[in-house]
Amino acid sequence: MIFWLAAVALAVVPLIPAVPVYWVTLLDNIGLAALVVIGLVLLTGVGGMTSFGQATFCGFGAYATALLTTQYGVSPWLTLFVALAVTLAVALALGFITVRLSGHYLPLGTIAWGIAIYYLFGKLEILGRNDGITGIPPLSVAGYQLSDSRSVFYVIWAFVLAACVATSNLLDSRMGRAIRALRGGTRAAEAFGVDTARVKLIVFVYAALLASVSGWLYAHVQRAVTPTPFGINASIEYLFMAVAGGTGHVVAAIFGSTLVILLKEALQRILPVLLGHTANWEPVVFGAVLVLILQKWPGGLWMFVERLLPQSLAPKITADAAPLPVRSLPARGSNLLSLERVRKAFQGLVAVNDVDLSVRSGDIVALIGPNGAGKSTTFNLASGLLPLTAGTVSFDGVRIDGEAPRRIAARGMARTFQHVKVLPDMSVLDNVALGAHLRGKAGVLSATFRLDRAEEARIMADAARQIERVGLKDQMLLQAGSLALGQLRILEIARALCLDPQLLLLDEPAAGLRHFEKQQLARLLSQLRDEGMSILLVEHDMGFVMGLTDHIVVLDFGMRIAAGSPEEIRANPAVIEAYLGASA
Ligand SMILES: Nc1ncnc2c1ncn2[C@@H]1O[C@H](COP(=O)(O)OP(=O)(O)OP(=O)(O)O)[C@@H](O)[C@H]1O
């Protein structure tokens, strides 16, 4: 509501004759920057991919329209589609290479192509080399030329408004959750079935297209383009705007753009008066202020505004949403997971040495052993996180070794993590809904146009059902970051259940839990088994395992030294020697 009131108030500004043209021009510049920064909020703030090359994509939009309108007389509105098509092709090619980079190689990659393309713009004869292209026509609507700041204002801000709405819609969707999941690490996201390389590429292209629209508008506002506004300096400035505003919220992009542009303007006016001479101190003070902001408020300054706004309403859960389809569980007692003579060697070290392990449907099976016995490695071989050196893994009668973790997840194997991997600033409900990624289909287009609501309601209703199933109903709308470790581990189980699995893989589910939390967890796992769920868990806590499981496999130095019921394992001398003996 406040957002729309602000939009109406903004729309009135250029109509007030007393508002100087200079201020309207500033608002135009803020709008142009905000388009790029909205993309950066999604790419960097939400998706965690830092780009120092966004201005380059503005360049593609600007040069495409500059060339076509001045050389070939094409209508500017048509060139918008050409600009988007050119940017799409370039962003797909650059993104394909760039988003596969990780750590600091990713921003370095964006710097590299940002610089290269900037020089390319300045070298190409057809683009007028460093002099650029002049004589670009203004935009026109119904024969009326938008050649002044006031008239073009509405076109710029219509695009900003559309970008805000589309991006907010996108974030509040299945794809939006997948984009947020990127911040939690590729491993976790892939385990829920997210194709992380594809999602990264989608975000990269989305941000590039917004920058291209900004460049296209810029060309028709300035009526001339040169390479300068599309260089690395401009890209860094856009990144500052995103970070200074706050990278977690779409509206913060507008706030950050306003902040940085007004700061630059203010410094240009105030500093010469204060310092009384013409030396160019603005960049120095500008840099110092930005460093101060980054130091003091790394989350961005939007949070100060956000605190003053009414809290957004809790997400609606439609109780009567049709349930998502549920896969049938295999007959109780049938062989669900089989590891046969699996082996994993890390260079010289054989971490898992020809181990056999099977899980029957409806059983809780534990994999135990002293530190370094090879439990986690075996677990990761089963879930596809590590490739096998030898042996086979079959799930529900089908060989799955060699398949990617997300394909294995799609078959009905869901996992939790030894070090919990939740998104702390997302609600428990949204975190759990992430587990249902593979049960939905809605992509970017249906999300931005809100055509995904029926599917989204079904996903949310299922997530709420799983949360109730594990007993976290009272925490459903809290931020996941506010939960205790025991609740976080249960949240991960709810998220795994949201995948509609046949088998749950739990990596040290009781690690770090207090006694009553362990009891609560054991009750939940028994309840799930009673409901027909099969569970394989890696665990250190013998008391927890003995009271809960149907079958135990013991590893030591990568070898299987025993397998049997808890009673058999308790009485096995090799186990007492290797495991219990060690702790005794
Ligand atoms: N990526 C790796 N590269 C090299 N060695 C590894 C790798 N992962 C595990 N190892 C080694 O393989 C052996 C088994 O490790 P693993 O983590 O599977 O044991 P674990 O039983 O899960 O131990 P813990 O209970 O301490 O987690 C250890 O000696 C470990 O150092």
Task: Produce a short descriptive summary.
This protein has 584 residues and is of the alpha/beta class.
Describe the structure.
- By secondary structure, this protein is of the alpha/beta class.
- It has helices at 2-12, 21-46, 54-71, 76-98, 105-123, 149-171, 174-181, 186-191, 196-222, 232-245, 250-275, 282-296, 302-308, 375-383, 405-410, 428-433, 444-448, 453-470, 485-497, 515-530, 542-546, 566-571, 573-583; strands at 133-134, 139-141, 144-146, 224-225, 335-346, 349-360, 364-368, 390-395, 398-399, 413-415, 503-507, 534-538, 551-556, 559-564.
- Strands 10-11-12-7-13-14 form a six-stranded mixed beta sheet, with helices on both faces.
- Strand 5 and strand 6 (349-360) form a beta hairpin.
- It is elongated.
- The mean pLDDT is 93.
- Bound molecules: adenosine-5'-triphosphate.
- Residues 346, 349, 351, 369, 371-377 line the site of adenosine-5'-triphosphate.
**Order of neighbouring strands in the sheet with most strands:** 10-11-12-7-13-14
Overall mean pLDDT stands at 93
End-to-end separation in angstroms reads: 64 Å
Report strand %. Answer: 5-15%
Using DSSP, what is the number of strands?
A: 14
Helix content: 40-55%
User: Which blocks of ≥5 consecutive residues have pLDDT under 50?
Assistant: none
Biggest beta sheet attributes: 6 strands, mixed
Radius of gyration, taken over Cα atoms and rounded to an integer in Å: 28 Å
Tally the helices: what do you get? 23
Q: What sort of overall outline do the alpha carbons produce when their principal axes are compared? A: elongated
Bound molecules: adenosine-5'-triphosphate
Helix/strand structural class:
alpha/beta
